[in-house]
Amino acid sequence: MRKLALSDAERRRIARLYVDQGLSIVELAARLHVSEPAARRRLHAAGIPARPAVKRSRLRKFDQGKLFSAIIDRGVVKAAQERGIPPITLKKYLAGLRREAKKR
């Protein structure tokens, strides 16, 4: 198999979409109008390691501002119940945000 050659602009675009914006490989493939395996090859050619396959948080679909307002107003448990998610999911999400904030 021949090596895939990417321009600097293509490398930057892939990095922006996958690393900076946090798109999944499936989402990246859709943006690049290529198949999932082709998107993986482009990541590899750009020198970007693929993230481990994990279940994406259901919390991504909620507006973060409204979610945090609900947590402040009604508490974690009530905010989670109103959105149909287990309170532990929301608690773990908040703990992860705290860990990320400490790293910065």
Secondary-structure map:
Elements: H1 8-20, H2 25-32, H3 36-45, H4 64-74, H5 76-82, H6 87-103
Written overview of the protein:
- With 104 residues, the protein is mainly α.
- It has two domains: 8-45; 58-103.
- 63% of the residues lie in helices and 0% in strands.
- The protein is elongated, with a radius of gyration of 18 Å.
- The N and C termini lie far apart (41 Å).
User: What about the largest sheet?
Assistant: none
Question: Could you spell the SSE succession in H and E letters?
Answer: HHHHHH
Estimate percent helicity.
Answer: 55-70%
Count every beta strand, where a strand is a DSSP E run of 2 or more residues. Answer: 0
- Return Rg in Å: 18 Å
Count of separate DSSP helical elements: 6
Salient structural properties:
104 residues; elongated
Q: Could you give a quick summary of the protein structure above?
A:
The chain is mostly helical and 104 residues long.
